[in-house]
Amino acid sequence: MSLCFVAFASCGDDDKDSNNGGNNQPVNNTTPAGPQIFTSSGNENGHNYVDLGLPSGALWATTNIGGALPQSYGDYYAWGETSTKSGYTWSDYKYGKDSLAIEKYCADDKHGKDGLIDNKISLDLTDDAAHIQWGGSWVTPNATMRQEIINECYWVYTNNYNNSMIAGYIVYKVKQTADKGVVVVKGETPLDSYSIEDPHIFLPLAGFKAEGKIRYSGAECRYMTSSLYPENSSRQRGITISEDKVGPTQYYRHIGTPVRPICFK
Predict the structure, then answer these.
(1) Is residue 106 one of the residues assigned to a domain?
(2) What's the mean pLDDT in 116-124?
(3) pLDDT at residue 210 is higher than 80
(4) Is 16 inside a domain boundary?
(5) What percent of the chain has pLDDT over 70?
(6) Domain tally, the chain
(7) What one-character-per-residue DSSP string does 76-125 give?
(8) Residue 184: per-residue pLDDT
(9) Is the pLDDT of residue 13 over 50?
(10) DSSP code per residue over 11-38
(11) In this structure, is residue 116 part of a structural domain?
């Protein structure tokens, strides 16, 4: 049995750069029928969540916003926007028509329009797609919650979640301390002590949306956080997952990405 151990605890704020290029992949937004064997710990305002045993008490939703099933790609949102659209370019971005003309959420002196610096580094609830779309106590996870789920859970890549033919990562509540922060990538063998019946969420490789096209679907995905990347305020902090890695990253705010909400009880 071989495992791929990836240590993320030291990543902190040193997010790796992720640009918005990429090839165009056929979009697989279908969700073939299969046995729906996944564990839900409860419901908040009509949406299910799973308790992954995280120290913060954060409860992660079982689906992306706009997704009916765990393997559904769902909708794509630009950072700070609460509705979907077709383009996802700087020209149609709500809070700045250029990377050097940010109109809200700016913490550096290079990217604010007309020198704007408001030092807002976290989304207001009025700009949080998770809260606006789902209500209740749902919010988009921040950078701290992002690092927590990376460090505290057991991640297993699959190219066929629950017989759906959808690729992504099963993120398990750990059964032992040694499993925390372990990422089993494509080609590696997971522990046989974990199964789809155990508490988990699934994060599909839904790609991202830019310039009117879905990119890298089935190969990678960028998941939004509510945290700005203050060293370059044209960017947000997120999670990037692919066949061979899981880690913190930062990328342009105008890109459309899936949102996986969290709540607290």
Answers:
(1) yes
(2) 98
(3) yes
(4) no
(5) 86
(6) 1
(7) -B-TT--S--S--SGGG-TT-SSTT-B-SS--STTTBGGG------B--G
(8) 98
(9) no
(10) -TT-PEE--S---B--------------
(11) yes
